[in-house]
Amino acid sequence: MVADSEIFASNALINDATAPRVSVFVGGTSGLGQLTIRALVGTGASVRIYLVGRKSSAERSAAFIAEMQTINPKAEIIWTEAEYSLLAETKRACDFVKSRESRVDLLFLTAGYAPFGGREETAEGIDTAQSLEYYSRMLCIQILLPLLRAAEAPRVVSILAGGMERVTSIDLDDIDLKKPGNFSGVRAQSQFGPLNTVTMDKFAHDNPDITFVHAWPGWVSTGNVDRGWAPGSLWSWFVRLFLRPLIGFFSINHDTAGQRHLFEATSAFYGGKGIPWKGDPGVNVRGEHTTGLFLVNFRANCTPNLKVIPALRERAQQKVWEHTQEVLGPYL
After folding, report:
1. What is the 3-state secondary structure (H, E, C) of 160-216?
2. Residue 180: other Cβ atoms inside 10 A
3. Looking at residues 160-181, what average pLDDT do you find?
4. Residue 10's domain spans which residues?
5. Can you give the pLDDT at residue 115?
6. Which helix (H) or strand (E) holds 75?
7. What torsion do the CA atoms of 19, 24, 30, 33 make, to the nearest 10 degrees?
8. What is the side-by-side order of every strand in the sheet holding 106-109?
């Protein structure tokens, strides 16, 4: 178990020598990504952050960047505009980072929403939520792998549903849920999370010097629940009048949420690299304490799901990997 006091103490050790000097945040214009940026900047360390966001987020992100640079003048936040639900735009943003940097210490992925309003395809023919929560994330990892490999303690963090996998979670006959009647908000969420896990497990196996974290954040009142509903629909009213207040009542404090995810992004509790950890180390999805893929719950504890992940790896990983490479191929 990791106590919040230990998390705050670990984060207090982040300085110019130990901070992830170059970070890429995709989805950091709001929600958990932004809370984690705030926590990282608040350490006072010299960091450079690429904040990837949509044009519609540019104005409020400029105000956020100005605020962060007032808090920590040594923090450089580079606005990187991209409509990251489109894989071509995601590639463009990643190529921009590659043109400027020789390494990336931290890749932090949070973009997405619960698509309870139904399937909505992008111009590339992919469901928007699936592109944000899966394909765009895996494309970022794959394009930036050379820069991650060049870092001393590289880490990839994807915030979605780590530890909530089931053996039969993934519909291998319809990975994109395109068959008539096969797409729903609940079905999509139960599919996209395990897709992250099995593909990140493959990345971790092939890149043993990189630490991967797939985290479930629990309830945090970020406004994300308001997305994905048809305006004026019965469900949108349900969210506004019931679900949003319920989440607000049970949600995690914003500062605590940001600190927990900063811990996931920096602590040697996960794989032995990062801010030194003196207690028992975390366990990855292969039951080991070395680098690899770590599934993490909302309290930053490891939930390796050791009864499910080996079966899911055997049953689904190769087919998911081949399908994913087919989709991402034109953008690599």
Report:
1. CCCCCCCCCCCCCCCCCCCCCCCCCHHHHHHHHHHHHHHHHHHHHHHCCCCEEEEEC
2. 5
3. 96
4. 4-217+252-331
5. 84
6. strand 75-81
7. -50
8. 75-81, 47-53, 22-26, 106-109, 155-159, 211-215, 293-296
Dist. CA 256–CA 252, nearest whole Å = 7
Q: Which residues are 295's β-sheet partners?
A: 214
Beta bridge partners of 51: 25, 79
Q: Is residue 226 part of a domain?
A: no
The owner of tokens 């954040």 is 217
Overall pTM > 0.85: yes
| Residue 299 forms part of a structural domain | yes
Instruction: Count other C-beta atoms under 10 Å from residue 54's C-beta.
Output: 16
The predicted-structure confidence for 230-257, as pLDDT tens digits, reads as follows 555 554 444 454 445 545 544 578 899 9
List beta partners, residue 8: none
CA–CA separation, 160 and 197 (whole Å): 10
Residue 230 falls inside a structural domain = no
Q: Which residue reads 């050790």 in tokens?
A: 13
Q: Which of 165, 195, 162 is nearest to 177 (CA)?
A: 195
Coil, strand, or helix at residue 322? helix
Residue bearing tokens 């705030």: 38
Count of domains forming the chain: 1
Angle CA 88–86–164, to nearest 5: 120
Residue matched to tokens 């990997």: 321
Are 122 and 128 in contact, with CB atoms under 8 Å apart?
Answer: yes
